[in-house]
Every structure is written in C-alpha cells, then in structure tokens.
Amino acid sequence: MTTMSMKKGVQPVLTMILVLLVAAAPLFMSPSNVQLFIFWGINILLAQSINLLSGLGGQISLGHAAFYAIGAYVSAIFMVRFGFPLYVTILLSAAVNALVGFLVSFPAGRVREFYLAMMTLGFGFVIEEIIKEWSSVTGGVMGLSGIPSPKLGTMLLFGIKLNLIHYYWIVFLVVALIVWMLRNFVQSYYGRSFLAIHRSELSASSIGISPGRVKQLAYTMSACLAGIAGALYAHLMAYIGANSFGMMQSIEILVMGILGGFGTIIGPILGAGFLTFIANKLQFIKDYQLMIYSLLLVISFLFIPRGFAGLLGIRTALSKEKRLQKVKPISEVKPLRIPGREARTLSCSPHHKVLKVEGVIKDFGGLRALQHVSLELGQGTILGLVGPNGSGKSTLVNVISGVYPVTEGKISFGKAEITNMPTHAIAGQGIIRTFQDPHNVGNMTVKENLLLGKHQKYQSGIVSCVLNLKSSLLEEQEMLVKVHEMMELCSLAQYSEELVENLPYGVQRMVEVARAILAEPELLLLDEPAAGLSEHEMQELSKLIRYVKTLGISVILIDHHMEFLMGLIDEVIVLDSGKMIYSGDAQGMQTNQQVIEAYLGVANHA
Q1: CA 368 to CA 107: how far, in whole Å?
Q2: CA 154, CA 132: separation in Å to the nearest integer?
Q3: Is 90 exceeded by the pLDDT of residue 9?
Q4: CA count, 13 A, side-chain hemisphere, 218
Q5: Which three-class secondary structure state does DSSP give residue 272?
Q6: What's residue 186's pLDDT?
Q7: Between β-strands 523-527 and 554-558, what pairing exists: parallel, antiparallel or unpaired?
Q8: What is the C-alpha separation between 360 and 374, in angstroms, rounded?
Q9: Which residues pair with 363 in a beta bridge?
Q10: CA atoms within 13 A on the CB side of 361
Q11: C-alpha torsion sign, points 45, 49, 52, 58
Q12: 229 has a pLDDT exceeding 90
C-alpha cells in the first residue's frame, strides 16, 4: 500500500473520531459550557455569513445584524403565535431572510465602498427601528418573551422535550452540514466567480461573469445563513429584544470574519471561537467592547492581515481536484482540443465577417477619442491595431468589449448587434479580451485562474454544486482536464499550484491569455500582450496566438513591438488621434507616408 493511499484511509477515520468527540463533549460539560459551545456554533454561522458576503463577494456590510434579527423574530413569532415546530421555523427564517437579502442586493449593487458601507449601516438602523416601533408583532422596546427554549425545558420536538444537550446536537448538525455545503460551494465555479468579482469586476465581466448576479447570490446566501443563526439564537435565549441586534452586534460579526481570515472556510470558525470564549472571560470590561473590537481590528490589519487562517498558513482550495479521483481519474495530458471548434475550423473563411464596426464615435466630455471608425474582421483573421499612444486603440477595444458605451455608431458581432451591451453579455456572445496590465485574481492559483476561463461552459446548478452531486463533479473533472492541457500547451504546468500574485510578470501575462483562450471565444481581443515580456516569452506568446488562429478564432491584436506584430497579423489598421489613417496589409502600412509620419517615424538628416 502506498503512502498516499494510507493517508486517504486514515483521514476518514480521524474525521469520524473528531465528530464523535465533538458530539460526546456536552455529556462531560457543565450546562454553562454547553451553552457557550452552542453560542460558538451560532457565531460560526454568522461569521461564515459575513465571510460569504465580504470575504468572498467583496461587499461591505456594516448592518449585518439586521439579517440576524429578522431570522430571530421570524422563527420566534411563528413558533409563539402559530405553534410551528423548530425545523419549520428555521426554514422559514432562512427563506424570509433570503428574500430580504435578494431585495437588498439591488440598491447595494448600485453603490460601492463608502456608499455601500453607509447603505448597509442604514439598513441595520431601519430594521432596528421597525423592531422597536412594530410592538404588536415584535413586542417593541419590551422585546418578545415566552419563546420555547431548551434552556427552560419548554421546547418540544417530535413530542420530545429538548434540553441543552439535545439543542447542542441540533446546532452541531446544522453547523456541520452548512460548513460542508459552503466548502463545496467555494470550491465550485460559483465560489471562484465570487472571488473574481471581489478582485476586479471588469476582469470578471470580460470572461462572462455577471457582477450583478454574483452580488445578488452573495446577499441572498449570506442573509439566509444569518437568518438560520438568528432562529437558533432566539430559541436558545427564550427572549429577544432590539438591543440584541444593534450596531455593536454588526461590528462583532465583522470582527469575527476579519480576525479569523476572510476568504477561507476555517478562518470564520477560528474567529468565532476566539470572540465567543474570550468575550465570555472578559465580561467585566463589557462597557469597553467597542474600543476592544477596534483595537482587535487594528492589530489584525497590522500584524495578521489574513487573520488566524493566514497566520497558520491555511488556505481553502478553490477546485475539487483532490476529491475527483473518486469519480474518475484525470486523463493523460494531450494536445488541447476545444469541443466543436475543429468542425468550425474546417469551414473557416476570412470572407465570413464576424465583426463589423460602423461609424463609431466615442466622446469623453469635450474630447473625441474615436472619430467615425469603421472596420470589418473576417473569421480566423488576425487584425493588428497600431498607432501612437493616445491614438484610440485601447478605446476602440473598450467600446467593442462593452467597457465604454458608444457615443454614436453601431457594432455587430455575427448576426447580432452588440452596441452598448454590458461587458459580461458581450463576453457571453463570444468576445473575450485581455488588458494592458494582467487582470488575474492574484490570490488564486494558476490552475484556479484558468478554471475561471471555463466559467461560461459550466452547466451544473447551484444545488448540484453545493451537494457535490456526481454530475457536478464530472463536469469539474472535464474542465480540469482542459485546464491541464492548456497549462502544458503554455508551459504553465510547473506553476499550477502557485498564487498568481507571486509569479513573474511574463507568467502572469501568459496566464491571462491562456484563461481567455479557455473561454472558447469567437473573437479574442489582445491589448498589448507582449508588453514587458522577454524575447523568449514573446516567442511563446507568438506560438500561442498562431495556435489560436488554427482554431478559427479571430484576433484583434494591439502592440507596439513591430517585429512581434508583423510576424502574426493578416491585416492592419492604423489610428491617429482617433481617426483611421490606414487599413490594409502590413507591407502597405510600411510604405504609407501618412503612417510613417504619424507612427513609424521619419529619418532626419543634418
């Protein structure tokens, strides 16, 4: 038996032993300690909730206790007023909170940074005031009492009177299930899209990820988790009031996530444990709670910016590769083949126009960056876009890809007009781009960044991904095979598990181009891909672009390195001050007097 197989055999045994120890723990603890551990479980859900929204999704929330409060009141009211059982009220709390989170995502998605923080803070204050003023339902400032609770022995479930130990087991099962589902979610293409939006919405949009949909999902799922935590809290305490869900609680939730380590699964568990048990020991300085939380945040930002998880070197992987061998072993690496691409390559014709730009004008205030630019691009054609700095090359690529709206004119791709469509929608049509500076997700590995390129090709639903259904795992397996093939093709295999932010510039550039190709574009827009590359790296990039052409993919290539450009392009367009001054082949460009004066340069003699 190999060492690897031995490790695989030992891990399930160790996991089972740990589960049994945690399950048996309340039998040997005092009631006060059992209650403290239940609080830890509830805080884990809250910390994971803010981690999902802020740590992964990048959305600031200073009023997160509002979701916590809604969950608590919904569960308590339905149990007290209507006699619903615990499992039903927990599901109702989750559903109501998910709806509220979804609705909040719309105004939240329209603002950023400071304004987003203020909006979420205001949302928290609004919910707090509703609780205080809607006294006929919530009990107002007096709070809501008489909630069935295991602590008081007043809660029944399936005819069984629950005590604290029973409730501990319920909370443990709920937390264990949710953490397992969260890990599956984070390691799916949904989780990777969260981090991509967090790092750069523009970059994520360029490969077809919709920022709006990701934010809606982040708020919905985060609110759902906070609602479950609120329901469990309400039935533990037997009493809830508005003071339990104020701004201080929102700050505590945020501190748990930051201190533990955003962007990981283990981090919020550690952060929740720290604040649960330390706060319990420091009750005598509770009046200085805000000051202590502020100090903890300052210490965290200065000395452990990635939280306890970062301090311990723990990172949550963003793919399921380690678990896929149970489904089907990864095939041997072979030359990359994009499904369906070969058939299109056979019928590829430069006479078939994939892109038409007609009389496009782009104004920035009083500055006209593009002046009546028109072009047509054939299938499988590489078009060079050249001109001096400020001539409008990148602006043209930006209006084609939807980054900038067109002032006047029309852009068509295939048979569809794409003028002023959102960037992610244009990417969905088959136009994928790169940027002047590499726009990778720096805290993701090379392999994980390349998996982002396949985002649009996934078909599995969120339930399949969260529950790790076989169809989802097989699809992830298929995408990983493609990624491994691309890494071999681009000489990136040796960097597979390296974080992109730690790699040389040339490798980062190659990762971005490889990711764009994996998106299976019909049109690839490369904005100065050779900038900053060594001679060897440019040769590798040239090979890759030629390979792209063999697949029938059209390319618009911007670059100032003329030798690199001339070896690749079929046609060239020259821009100067937003005007097209030349369109034709490369040889004609080199002899065109207007191009020579504007861009290529004229020899001066004494």
Answers
A1: 33
A2: 26
A3: no
A4: 32
A5: helix
A6: 95
A7: parallel
A8: 7
A9: 368
A10: 10
A11: negative
A12: yes
Share of the chain above pLDDT 90, in %: 59
Cα 120 from Cα 101, distance rounded (Å): 11
Q: Which residues of 22-53 are buried (b: 16+ CB within 10 A; e: fewer)?
A: eeeebeeeeeeebbebbbbbbbbbbbbbbbbb
pLDDT given for residue 532 in this prediction: 84
Phi-psi region of 359 (alpha: psi -120 to 50; beta: other; left: phi over 0): left
Q: Please tell me the predicted confidence (pLDDT) of residue 349.
A: 61
Q: What three-state secondary structure class fits 150?
A: coil
Please, what is the average pLDDT of the chain?
88
* Number of residues assigned to the chain: 606
What is the distance between the alpha carbons of residues 216 and 235, in angstroms, rounded to a whole number? 29
Rounded to 5°, the CA angle 577-581-584 comes to 140
Convert the pLDDT of each residue in 26-37 to its tens digit. 888 899 999 999
CA distance linking residue 193 with residue 215, whole number of Å:
10
Q: Indicate the residue type of 525.
A: L
Q: How many CB atoms are located within 10 Å of the residue 355 CB?
A: 23
Q: Is 273 left (phi over 0), alpha (psi -120 to 50) or beta?
A: alpha
Nearest of 183, 345, 339, 343 to residue 264 by alpha carbon:
183
- What whole-number distance in Å separates Cα of residue 133 and Cα of residue 161? 34
* Per-residue H/E/C for 228-266: HHHHHHHHHHCCECHHHHCHHHHHHHHHHHHHHCCCCCH
Place of tokens 């510039």: 505
Fill in the amino acid letter for 284: F
Token output for 1:
């038996």
pLDDT of residue 218: 96
Q: Residue 509: which region, alpha, beta or left (left: phi > 0; alpha: psi -120 to 50)?
A: alpha
| Domains along the chain with CATH numbers | 32-315 (1.10.3470), 341-600 (3.40.50.300)
| 273, two tokens | 């444990």
CA distance linking residue 150 with residue 156, whole number of Å: 8
Q: Is the dihedral of CA 402, 538, 453, 186 positive or negative?
A: negative
Please give the share of the chain, as a percent, with pLDDT higher than 70: 91
What does the alpha-carbon distance between residue 418 and residue 354 come to, in Å, rounded to a whole number?
12
Summarize pLDDT for 98-134 with one digit per residue, the tens: 999 999 999 988 888 888 889 999 999 999 999 999 9
Phi and psi based region of residue 402 (left: phi greater than 0; alpha: psi -120 to 50; beta: remaining): left
Reading the block at residue 291, the tokens are: 């000051």
What pLDDT is recorded for position 598?
73
Residue 57: CA count within 13 A, CB half-sphere: 29
Contacts (Cβ under 8 Å, ≥6 apart) of 157: 85, 86, 87, 166
Strand partners, 240: 144
358 three-class SS: strand
The answer to whether the beta carbons of residues 455 and 189 sit under 8 Å apart is yes
Cα dihedral 591, 597, 601, 606 sign: positive
